[in-house]
């Protein structure tokens, strides 16, 4: 428990264990002005402008791999209450969180610090993380969740249900844009959902460390709420673009599985999270993914002359991804045809 950044960060300089090599530091944290990922008004998808929204989402997925959605239908009060209880969790005394702390990456519900495998890391990330499953079988998943704060299970369950609905809605639009049949991403391709809550305390030297290293997500899509504080950056055309947190907006990004299914039409793009010297940041990422035994392959109607990838079982992809996640090219090449 003493390894959690939130347990010791106050009134300390950045420890050697969290200082990245010069070539991997974020350095200048000022990102280009006037550049941002697309923002899409999802309310227009239900009316006469649906075709335009479908085209906007497809274009964003092709060019950026990321977009933000507003007017998405998730109640603002529900998001606010969900974040209140997530922040309350990280503010609890260490003794109340100790039961969940684990350095075993196979634990289904665990509180940890830094990356996937703390013991094997040469340099640690400036973050604490709570991760647990939400779907399938929400009621079974809830039994794994924190019992404190008292409202955690109730509020996060409601939040996760709405996030899953939003993800399903976006996947339907993506399927339509790709020319796939309705419901293509239903059942096993989007059966699972994992919640990853990142908590980043203020950092004394943001230019020398990272909250999350550059990576691509291995799942289908990610539904992210930034919690109102800057930090997320997306790599686009050779430079990092800051993703401005918009009021009541969700960030959506294409995962490796969706790139594969689309036969490289949509892009899973590298992103990272930089630190902040003044403000703590808590974010909630809902990872929508295939079931472990689901076979993933390019959609037959999108193969053209050839499939860019061979079929594989999703759990095998994850086994290759985690040891190699810092190099997405290595990850994806393993599964190319």
From TrEMBL:
Keywords: Iron, Metal-binding, Oxidoreductase. One of its GO terms (molecular function) is metal ion binding. The keyword Oxidoreductase applies. Gene3D superfamilies: B-lactam Antibiotic, Isopenicillin N Synthase, Chain (2.60.120.330). It holds the Pfam family 2OG-FeII_Oxy. Residues 189-290 form the Fe2OG dioxygenase domain. SUPFAM superfamilies: Clavaminate synthase-like. PANTHER family: OXOGLUTARATE/IRON-DEPENDENT DIOXYGENASE. Belongs to the iron/ascorbate-dependent oxidoreductase family. This is Ethylene-responsive transcription factor 1B-like. It comes from Hibiscus syriacus.
